[in-house]
């Protein structure tokens, strides 16, 4: 048995702002089949503390980055949780990273240095009768953990650093260094300094025993200047330690045969029953009942996601006979552009600001097309949900999108392997043509149904990826990589 502490700033269903939470929430259960036990270390946000069941104090930290802190262990959302109860850092409403003004909390460096330091102390044996074998650190918020392990008093725990999106790096002024509680060797050996300041993610990439990211293609992309965001040189140096392991999804939570958030259940053998969900969506978004493909977006509305391009082609989408529904929030300019499209095309374009988990399930279960026109996408989960629910993905050929969707070119259609529409490069004109191509494919009813069924039968679970993580842990620990309960 391998004991792992998953160090994360969010985990579904306790606290979620994006795909990171879906991963950290689903991976522990998948790893259990491979003799890996996971305890998830989370900041004690109100949502986490409120969901913690049977919480018991397992450690106290009287001087914890400016106040009293303690660790509480219990269950929450189906996970084994260690919560950092430090109200001066985490007892704040709403989004875990930004305040009511939608700006980053100014002490985020301290809040997530605390997360990393607590993980390090757990690795050293802070909890009675518990010493984890692996500290698995997710994104920049946990990035200092490997640096603490490398430069402070030693611990036997191995460290894994997973990059979910290299664009978010946790960069701060050098003036915070003396308050980080890290040995000065971290500065001397250039492990934490980043362009004259401090880089949390850089520190993790520099010092972790193993590096992973969330798709094989993204692992290649981030070693080059187009996608490496300034860290490509470091990743080239550490390339032998970097592995791309594709994300999966929780196929029990995302199951069109049992999903209580759907109006009508269905399987790949009864795909025509999706019509009930489509009708409910049309009513929710104020669309008419005219025929034509219903395109959908469930996303943060940002430049990265390519949704400024969608604003430019919305009129063309309607002209091609399509309809568009969007659930999301983000850049004000994109929000306003989509709202404008809805006003220009009543009955054809619908826009709901914000995020609504039940509605996101209904969209996957009723829309015809899931649009993911990202300029870069480490893995992406929306297209995996789309495959699972027969909502055909239309994606750009980057990162995990390229790894998970097989383009419906004529050869792939004839060979019976196509699962979606893939376009490149990520430009307005290429997206416009991809939308037109999708509309034409939708008009070929037999081809479209086969593509839906093929996607629904794709393996988008965590099973294979969890096996790869388990083998990675075993390799780090000097164990037989294949010695697990399934062998």
TrEMBL record:
Domain Glycosyl transferase family: 293-440
Pathway the protein takes part in: Glycan biosynthesis; glycogen biosynthesis
Keyword list, A-Z: Glycogen biosynthesis, Glycosyltransferase, Transferase
Binding residue positions for ADP-alpha-D-glucose: 16
A Pfam family this chain is assigned to: Glyco_transf_5
GO terms for cellular component: cytosol
Catalytic activity as recorded in UniProt: [(1->4)-alpha-D-glucosyl](n) + ADP-alpha-D-glucose = [(1->4)-alpha-D-glucosyl](n+1) + ADP + H(+)
EC number annotated for this UniProt entry: 2.4.1.21
Residue stretches making up the Starch synthase catalytic domain: 4-236
InterPro entries for the chain: Glyco_trans_1, GS/SS, Starch_synth_cat_dom
Database matches in NCBIfam families: glgA, PRK00654.1-2
Function: Synthesizes alpha-1,4-glucan chains using ADP-glucose.
The family this protein is said to belong to: Belongs to the glycosyltransferase 1 family. Bacterial/plant glycogen synthase subfamily.
Name the UniProt record assigns to this protein: Glycogen synthase
């Amino acid at each position: 048995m391998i004991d792992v502490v998953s160090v994360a700033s969010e985990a579904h269903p306790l606290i979620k702002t994006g795909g990171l939470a879906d991963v950290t929430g689903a991976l522990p259960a998948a790893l259990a089949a491979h003799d890996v036990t996971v305890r998830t270390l989370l900041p004690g946000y109100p949502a986490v503390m409120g969901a913690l069941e049977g919480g018991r104090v397992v450690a106290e930290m009287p001087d914890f980055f400016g106040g009293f802190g303690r660790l509480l262990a219990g269950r929450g959302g189906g996970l084994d949780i260690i919560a950092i109860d430090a109200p001066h850092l985490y007892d704040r409403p709403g989004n875990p990273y930004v305040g009511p003004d939608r700006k980053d909390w100014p002490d985020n460096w301290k809040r997530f240095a605390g997360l990393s330091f607590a993980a390090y102390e757990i690795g050293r044996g802070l909890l009675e009768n518990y010493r984890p074998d692996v500290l698995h650190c997710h994104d920049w918020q946990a990035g200092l953990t490997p640096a603490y392990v490398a430069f402070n008093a030693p611990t036997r725990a191995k460290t894994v650093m997973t990059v979910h999106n290299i664009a978010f790096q946790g960069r701060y002024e050098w003036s915070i260094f003396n308050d980080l509680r890290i040995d000065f060797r971290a500065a001397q050996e250039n492990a934490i300094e980043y362009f004259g300041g401090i880089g949390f993610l850089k520190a993790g990439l520099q010092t972790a025993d193993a590096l992973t990211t969330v798709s094989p293609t993204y692992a290649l992309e981030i070693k080059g200047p187009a996608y490496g965001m300034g860290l490509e040189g470091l990743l080239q140096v550490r390339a032998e330690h970097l592995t791309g392991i594709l994300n999966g999804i929780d196929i029990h939570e995302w199951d069109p045969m049992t999903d209580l958030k759907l109006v009508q259940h269905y399987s790949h053998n009864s795909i025509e029953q999706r019509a009930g969900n489509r009708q409910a969506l049309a009513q929710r978004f104020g669309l008419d009942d005219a025929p034509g493909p219903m395109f959908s977006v469930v996303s943060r509305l940002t430049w990265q996601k390519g949704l400024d391009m969608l604003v430019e082609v919305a009129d063309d989408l309607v002209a091609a006979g399509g309809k568009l529904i969007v659930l999301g929030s983000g850049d004000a300019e994109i929000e306003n552009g989509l709202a404008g499209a809805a006003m220009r095309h009543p009955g054809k374009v619908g826009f709901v600001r914000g995020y609504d988990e039940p509605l996101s399930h209904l969209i996957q279960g009723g829309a015809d097309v899931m649009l993911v026109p990202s300029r870069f996408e480490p893995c992406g989960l929306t297209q995996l949900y789309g495959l699972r629910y027969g909502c055909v993905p239309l994606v750009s050929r980057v990162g995990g999108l390229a790894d998970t969707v097989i383009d419906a070119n004529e050869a792939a259609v004839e060979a019976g392997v196509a699962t979606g529409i893939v376009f490149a490069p990520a430009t307005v004109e290429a997206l416009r043509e991809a939308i037109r191509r999708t509309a034409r494919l939708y008009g070929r009813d037999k081809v479209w149904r086969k593509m839906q069924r093929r996607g629904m039968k794709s393996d988008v679970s965590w099973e294979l990826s969890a096996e790869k993580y388990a083998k990675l842990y075993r390799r780090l620990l000097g164990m037989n990589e294949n010695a697990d309960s399934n062998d």
